[in-house]
Specification:
single chain; about 160 residues; alpha+beta; Aminopeptidase; 5-stranded antiparallel sheet; binds coenzyme A
């Protein structure tokens, strides 16, 4: 089953023609403020990223683009299980859409993969992402300093886990 339907969302596998919509997300400085790379300045960079998402092996990956009212507005899932990653276009923030997406995705990950926990690595300044994960019952399991160099800036990590119930 490569598609999940929620009340407001269709979660499906990425396709090559998602490139423009995903570039709109991945080139947005506010959406990318705490991402693991700088914003994509050219569409070829998004093309490489999308190729990686499409080519990911189903044995180790379960990742979705998020469609809302027929428009691709972000992505959520594990590019590499058990590490969760998600991003939405800022026009769609604050409406509970990512909570809705992850509420569908998390049980499916536990059903598909023999994992003890799903993990997240969040910049401690990313309070919205931390609040979202805590609302979904993730708990903090550790912290580390200077884990990512993004452009000129060193960033820290909060590690969170959701254990199998
Ligand atoms: C993090 C992100 C995906 C949240 O998506 P969203 O759809 O706006 O989040 P939701 O509306 O589902 O909110 C879920 C929870 O987040 C928190 N939240 C959402 N918007 C918030 C805001 N503006 N201020 C404070 N908390 C907020 C709330 O706790 C909310 O819980 P609630 O349902 O009890 O109100 C979105 O802000 C985003 O794409 N950010 C950029 C990418 C990113 O940082 N990804 C995570 C990397 S670790």
């Amino acid at each position: 089953m490569d598609e999940l339907i929620t009340p407001r969302l269709r979660l499906r596998r990425a396709r090559a023609d998602d490139i423009d919509a995903l570039h709109a997300v991945l080139s947005d400085p506010s959406a990318m403020r705490y991402w693991s790379t700088l914003p994509h300045t050219d569409i070829a960079r998004t093309g490489d990223w999308l190729d990686g998402m499409i080519a990911a092996t189903p044995e180790a990956s379960d990742d979705f683009v998020i469609e809302h009212e027929g428009r691709v507005i972000g992505k959520a899932g594990c590019w590499q299980v058990p590490e969760i990653g998600y991003i939405l276009h800022p026009d769609f923030w604050g409406r509970g859409l990512m909570r809705e997406a992850l509420t569908a995705i998390l049980p499916r990950l536990f059903a598909r993969f023999p994992i003890a926990a799903i993990r997240a690595d969040v910049d401690p300044r990313n309070t919205v992402s931390l609040a979202l994960l805590k609302r979904l019952d993730f708990t903090e399991v550790g912290r580390a300093a200077r884990t990512w160099q993004i452009g000129e800036e060193w960033c820290d990590s909060v590690y969170l886990e959701l254990s199998r119930r």
